[in-house]
Amino acid sequence: MLNFKEITAKDNNLLKLTTLLQKSAKARKDKGLFVLEGLRICRDAAENGVAFETLILSKSVYSAASARVKDLYVNAKNGVVIGDELFKRISDTTSPQGIIALCYVPEAKNEINPCGRYVALENISDPANIGAVARTAEALGVDGMIISGDSCDVYSPKALRASMGTLVRLPLHFCDDIIDFLSKHSLRGFACVAEEVADCKFGDCSFTDGDVVIIGNEANGLMQSTKDEAFKTINISMRGNAESLNAAAAAAIAMWELMK
Question: Are 80 and 57 in contact (CB under 8 A)?
Fold first, then answer.
């Protein structure tokens, strides 16, 4: 068991760092750390090889010394215990569970299965959408997510909560340019567009191994170059008056068609 150090000062540097990592994508990138909060997601991370720099427990959780957190001790470099009120100050949730892990950002995945089926996200700006897409991708058996460099941070608390832990389990592949990445790995990209005119519609298009559905920015959709250079453009037939779908909803439909 870790020898937990007790912290009582509100202005402690570790607690300041925890708060900063909750709020700032730049800080997460610079420090190579991100924050997980809650027993289930911390356990998922540990079981999937994510290492903890520091495990922070509230005093009530630490005092209980319950078996439910013991398996997390061996995954942490350091252990800290703080008072329940102090824990609430650094928590990003309304009902804290008393468990926070400062985690090392995992190394990016390099292995792409040329026979896999993937979802690619280009310039997604809402972390809740990234989390929701990841959760659906895992449920449907998608082999991984390809994420462009201009998308929001997958390790933001909002994205991690929306994913229900999926973002620490699903293979994530990061790239500067989606089309270049697909070309390098001999994958076929299907650019999902809202325009009425497209090469094909979901339901009328056959997918095979090595195919990827590409979802664009919530407000602006896909870049023109991505649409021009994709293997095909594809859209969803809509009978109502809505001009487009939420990015996560469109991705869910696209992945269902990709995997069925």
Answer: yes
Cβ-in-10-Å burial (0-12, 13-18, 19+) of 246 comes to: middle
The strand ranges marked E within 59-199 are: 76-82, 99-104, 118-121, 144-148, 172-175, 188-192
Q: What is the end-to-end Cα distance of the chain in Å, rounded?
A: 46
CATH code assigned to 118-259: 3.40.1280.10
**CA 249 to CA 31: how far, in whole Å?**
33
CB 145 within 8 A of CB 215: no
Fold (topology level) of 5-104:
60s Ribosomal Protein L30; Chain: A; (3.30.1330)
Distance in angstroms (rounded) separating the CA atoms of residues 124 and 243: 18
Q: With contact defined as beta carbons under 8 Å apart, do 5 and 79 qualify?
A: yes
User: Nearest-5° angle of CA 185, CA 191, CA 194?
Assistant: 165
Query: Which pLDDT score, from 0 to 100, does residue 68 have?
Result: 66
pLDDT for 199: 87
Q: C-alpha angle 214/170/216, rounded to 5°?
A: 20
User: What does the pLDDT read at residue 67?
Assistant: 63
DSSP label of 201 = E
Domain boundaries, the chain: 5-104, 118-259
- Model confidence at 74: pLDDT above 90: no
Residue 260 pLDDT > 60: yes
Average pLDDT, stretch 206-222?
Answer: 94
pTM (two decimals): 0.89
Span 182-207, average pLDDT: 89
pLDDT at 1 over 60: no
| Torsion angle (degrees, nearest 10) of CA 115, 218, 243, 140 | 30
- Alpha helices, DSSP H only, in 108-259? 127-140, 157-163, 178-184, 224-229, 247-259
